[in-house]
Amino acid sequence: MAEGDQQASTETIIITALSTLTPPQLSHLTHTISSAFHRRHHHRLSSLLSSPTLFSQTLHHLHSLSLPHKSLLLSRYLLSTLRHLTLFFTTPPPPQTTVLKLQDYDAVLLLLVLCELHQQYPEALETPQAEWRGILGGYLLDNMLSISGIGVHTGAVLIQYIEVVARCLRFVGAVGGGGEKLGTEVAASPAVVVALPSVEVSGVGLECVICKEEMRRGRDVCELPCEHLFHWMCILPWLSKRNTCPCCRFRLPSDDVFGEIQRLWGVVVKMGSGRRSDGESR
To answer: What is the mean pLDDT of each run of 10 residues along the chain (282 residues)?
Structure first.
């Protein structure tokens, strides 16, 4: 799949998943993105581009980071944006977002803008670095003016959000499974495991698929969010190594950045795919 087609497909999946939200949910999401993502995003970019000293320091910090470190920072930023999107789609809800240090946050924003500019106008970054701040400022101003008529509380906020998520996914490799750590098994988050409910077995003949033994009626067992039941002594070691249900592969939240990206993006893909299937069946 060509890079342009992959990005278009990613954006289509996100838009289709958003179309499954009710109007109140979409309004809530737009408000959340506007407050927690859009305003901070543009405020920090404005600060970077209006201050020669801050821009120079951030660019120096970005140059000092290794490629794996850049990828990790992009992944953490992507994870924070995906959690906004999947808040209404996941049970349990995604854990609290990991907060990037301000210096790292600025480096991620600058990296995203530099990559976007390189993709659109590669010749622009062939100029001396002393001119980059002015070039980036003009580029961002043109972009903001081009979407100013959409409406800052609806279309503009969501369009910019979708573009950033799609760009991060492409860089991290989550869409194509190209990330080095994507696809590997990760442990479930200890906080999520501790919060799992204990329920009493009410039926007869129910078997724990891990140990293959019957779950005795009246005994307390663990219930996962997908409603499958397991002996506590069986499921705890299992979840210490992997965050999937042994029966249906339902994914629980994890503390691994790459594992969470894969899990949450899978939720978005499932919602978008479900919507397309509904449309095709009519």
So the answer is: 58 88 86 76 86 94 91 89 80 66 92 86 87 87 57 66 85 51 76 93 87 91 94 96 93 88 87 57 34
Q: Are residues 197 and 233 in the same domain?
A: yes
Q: Which domain does 225 fall in, by range? A: 190-239
CB 262 within 8 A of CB 174: yes
Residue 57, pLDDT score: 94
pLDDT of residue 211: 95
Question: Do 43 and 65 fall within a single domain?
Answer: yes
Predicted TM-score (pTM) above 0.70: yes
Torsion angle in degrees (nearest 10) through CA of 263, 265, 268, 270? -60
The letter for the amino acid at 23 is: P
Looking at residue 183, what DSSP letter applies? T
CB atoms within 10 A of CB 30: 19
Place of tokens 């969010």: 225
Q: Kindly state whether residues 70 and 200 are assigned to the same domain.
A: no
Question: For the chain, how far is it from start to end, CA to CA, in angstroms?
Answer: 29
- 246 domain residue, yes or no: no
Which run of H or of E encompasses 147?
A: none
The count of other CB atoms within 10 Å of the CB of residue 169 is 26
For the chain, how many residues are written? 282
Look up the CATH number of the domain holding residue 196.
3.30.40.10
Q: In the prediction, which pLDDT does 232 show?
A: 96
Per-residue pLDDT at 202:
86
Contacts of residue 276, defined as CB under 8 A and 6 or more positions apart, other chains included, come to: 16
- Alpha carbon distance 215, 219 (integer Å): 7
Is residue 128 domain-shared with residue 86, that is, in the same domain? Answer: yes
* 146 part of a folded domain: yes
Q: Are 84 and 202 in the same domain?
A: no
Tell whether 147 and 77 lie within a shared domain. yes
